[in-house]
Amino acid sequence: MKETIRQTIGEYTRKYRERKKQKLTRRQICALLFLIAAAAAVIAICFWFCRPMLQLADRPAEFRAYIESRGMVGIGAFLLATVLQVIAAVIPGGPFEIAAGYTFGLWKGSLLSDLGTTAGSLIVFLLVRRFGREFVELFFSKEKIDSLSFLKTTSRSRWIIFLLFLIPGTPKDMLSYFVGLTDMPLPIWLFITAVGRFPSIFLSALSGTALGRQDYLSAILLIGGIVLLCGTGAVGYQIYLGRKNRPEDDEDARNS
What we know:
- By secondary structure, the chain is mostly helical.
- It is 82% helix and 0% strand.
- The protein has one domain (2-141, 172-214).
- It is built from 12 helices and no strands.
């Protein structure tokens, strides 16, 4: 009798695990299909923007008139591309921010880019809360996710995440996915992503504005400065990450 009960429980457990595994697989397939659709949409929108931009590269005023003639459709398409860029994660955001400055001017372009990236970060946050770690692992390896495990949602770690968003060159899209795995409150997250991303967005839009004025020297200097800042930030981030993930740090954390 006991053996029969044990076998029944074991069979039920095995079937439950198989159903759970199949459910996660379906989630992963849906997420991958969503990623492919997002990337395709970004490419289509970029083609819609970039083709006239290239054709009118020496006539920025005409290009802006072309976009303005599309009214809210042009703004909506740009916002959608920016949102999908954040969700897709593998697509860099810098070119979008430069194009925003070129197309819409410094302040309007900066605000539109910030709005789009904030909306994209919100969607990522909600998707990760809904689908969990399996969804994050579609975009980033387990090792990369585990390397951020020291960023627990204490008041101190929230400040660290905010500072990481302020620094150019840090992997903000990966951080956006990781934050969804924590218990960070949504209002705080929206503040961090909206305010923290803005300095980098503003600098990129400023270089795009210089391109729109055909002030190529200023544009080259600004883009060069952005590349230097991003490189410095990326190196600093890797050094910081390495220190936080040293074995002795883990040992100290366990003993504290």
